[in-house]
TrEMBL record:
Organism: Ignicoccus pacificus DSM 13166
Name of the protein in its database record: Metallo-beta-lactamase domain-containing protein
InterPro entries reported in the protein's UniProt record: Metallo-B-lactamas, NDM-1-like, RibonucZ/Hydroxyglut_hydro
Family matches, as Pfam families: Lactamase_B (PF00753)
SUPFAM superfamilies (UniProt xref): Metallo-hydrolase/oxidoreductase
Length: 209
């Protein structure tokens, strides 16, 4: 982990040392993630890619810093648009109170792929095109466990399917919503509990019907 609780107050960011090193998210500002990448002995030029689980500013706010260091930024299709525009609503800048500096996205992820031998998964629901990374029993799932808001392109049916996909992987460890859950049973419990409670729409931005 290179940023986020328990290290600091930003969204979680991870350095994955798979067949090659890559980053998952960049925190709200990027400086802490950047320093920690160096601390773990990796130069930004060695990073294969920076994969954003989604466009929220607590996760993608540091993208610009890595982009300036020559790292390719990747995001799901709709989330990439928000990162490139610095869309205040979609990136939740209006709720979090931190602006996302518009950043070019070099890889717009439209289908599942391998990144340095790790599985890049489509996990829409929390935002329209949220992504996850699965590697050696560890699932980095962004904010898979909610909340949902129409301003982020959240979608209840997609959210259910993504939770079911996460369950089918039977991860040993899952990091979601700025927490990590350890052990197959605990992870399954968290996912099943979420499914049981249903899509966690925020009251102020529920779909109208
Ligand atoms: Zn989020």
């Amino acid at each position: 982990m290179v940023a986020g609780p328990p290290l600091n107050d930003e969204g979680q960011a991870f350095l994955v040392k798979a067949e090659c090193p890559f980053l998952v998210d960049s925190g709200a500002f990027g400086e802490v993630a950047f320093q920690n990448v160096l601390y773990y002995g990796v130069q930004p030029s060695e990073l294969e890619v920076l994969v954003n689980t989604h466009a929220h500013v607590d996760r993608a706010g540091g993208d610009w810093l890595f982009h300036e260091a020559g790292v390719t930024v990747a995001a799901g299709e709709r989330d990439a648009i928000a990162i490139q525009r610095g869309d205040r609503e979609y990136t939740a800048a209006d709720m979090i109170g931190v602006e996302l500096k518009p950043t070019p996205v070099g890889w717009i992820v439209k289908e599942e792929a391998l990144v340095c031998g790790a599985e890049l998964l489509l996990l829409p629901g929390h935002t329209a095109s949220s992504l996850g990374i699965y590697y050696e029993g560890v699932l980095l799932a962004g904010d898979l466990l909610g909340p949902l808001c129409t301003k982020w392109g959240s979608e209840g049916e997609a959210w259910i399917k993504s939770i079911e996909k996460a369950l089918s992987l039977e991860p040993n460890v899952m990091c979601a919503n700025n927490e990590c859950f350890y052990g197959k049973h605990k992870v399954r419990f968290m996912l099943e509990k979420s499914l049981e409670m249903g899509p966690p729409w925020l009251e102020e931005c529920k779909p109208k019907n």
